[in-house]
Amino acid sequence: MFLLARRSGHAFGLLVAEEARQNGWLPRLERAVGKGAAVAVRPGVYLSARRWRTLSRTDRTLARIYAVSLTQPDLVFAAHSAAALYRLPLPEDDLEDVHVLEAPEGVAGLVAHPDSAAGEVVTVFGLPATSPVQTVLDMAVLLDYDDALALLRAAIHLPSALHDEPALCTKAELLEAAEAEAARTGDGAIVELARAIGPERLSAAA
Question: Residue 201: its pLDDT value, please?
Fold first, then answer.
């Protein structure tokens, strides 16, 4: 299994069955799977069982996202999966399903979000995803109030010892997008949620 892992070249050491077939090491991969030395992360994508056991719950979610990108590179990650790529807090940190804008029919483990007003698609760690603002808006609708509020606060955090990276979006950007979404859907709840974030979190982002 160690020699197989060296053939990966992908995040987390993921092994793609189609690449194995093209390069002549599919029988070795199949033997590893049969012996329990490799596990399926997604159909056609595998990982060393030992490596899988060492992954955190959050990293398992990310590994599934990367696995989808290796077999279906045109899919755009959305909602929970986009939030995971942005490292936003989620109530569940080991997500079995992968969330995308549009999913091919008959593919298990993919959840489509066609109603997302996707707009801009950006690249996050090399993967296509809904923009930070759109992702935050989508999750604000999908999550319970307290979880949504925590996610919004994380997205517009002020720089601190715990956050070296810049905020994903500003208060102004979020409110503008929320108001546009409310005008489109007739539901103003997301605007009220954005306004509910404490001013101490927003002073530098306004």
Answer: 40
